What does this fold into?
Amino acid sequence: METRVCRLYAPHDIRIESQPVEGPGAGEVLVRIGAGGICGSDLHYYHDGGFGSIRVREPIILGHEVAGTIEAVGDAVEGLSRGDRVALNPSRPCNECTCCRQGLRQHCLNMRFYGSALRFPHEQGGFRDLIVAEAFQCVKVGPETSLAEAAVAEPLAVCLHALARAGAVKGKRVLVTGAGPIGVLTAAACAHAGAAEIVVTDLQDAVLEVARAMGATMTVNVAREADALEPYCADKGVFDLAFECSAAGPALSSAIRSVRPQGTIVQLGVTGELPIPANLLVGKEINLIGSHRFDPEFAEAVRLIDRREIDVRPIISGSYPLEEAQAAFARAGDRSRAVKVQLTFAEG
It folds into this structure.
């Protein structure tokens, strides 16, 4: 048995190749992938060969936002059957290291995460027709939920974890900086959690339109309306919470200026060093919190998508068959035309 894979050799050098795939072993299932979302990390690998100190040092199969249908079930697997449609959790913590024992599995010291170049040899990803996964990675979805929707569970889980880091959202005034996939899904999660006001900023009108469809009560194109947030900075700021999803210095500065004293900023956007107006951070006693990946939030994200309590369909900007991966990556990197671009895979 063989599967096609989407393998990156170097920046802009993606090749669709075939390789053998074996049946599932004990505790494993064979999944036929139906949809896979292109993430920001995939784009960094594709365009730049990595990000920060993380570099692609060997050919790597990309992709960690995937969903599919179970083709075969190995021994000692309970609760899963052939034909079940599942979202695949890309995280495989060891459950034995110091972080895992402290209940911080998203910080596992031996984490295996689909399509990651952090470790060497690299962890191969999910952009392939067939993949053998551990049964615990599979979270079932119902027949009314498309695999395209199910594949959005991973980025939504990132956002749900950020909300958990922030604390209570109900009734709060919220700022979201950056309307990429994480930004618009954070807006949707805040709307679901009962935020009173959700202002989303970005540099592109197209993605801000999607943010409105996902629950933003107001959007601001800061490239065109540079002073639009000034009223929110009055009297030491008015937002209770801010979620910084752009990894841009000016966005973090605007969040610090517009969040009220003792308000909270959750940093989701990942980059190198950012300048911080420390005098304002200290003077306003702002809580600046980092948020990294997820753990139990993945199953919750699948549940919210499956029940359409959060409708993720507006963020899916386009779907391309695997053989058109180059075109898919080109569109995914164009924020004037896309929020979330997905690959689709061959049926059985």
Notes: The chain has two domains: 2-152+312-344, 156-290. The mean pLDDT is 96.
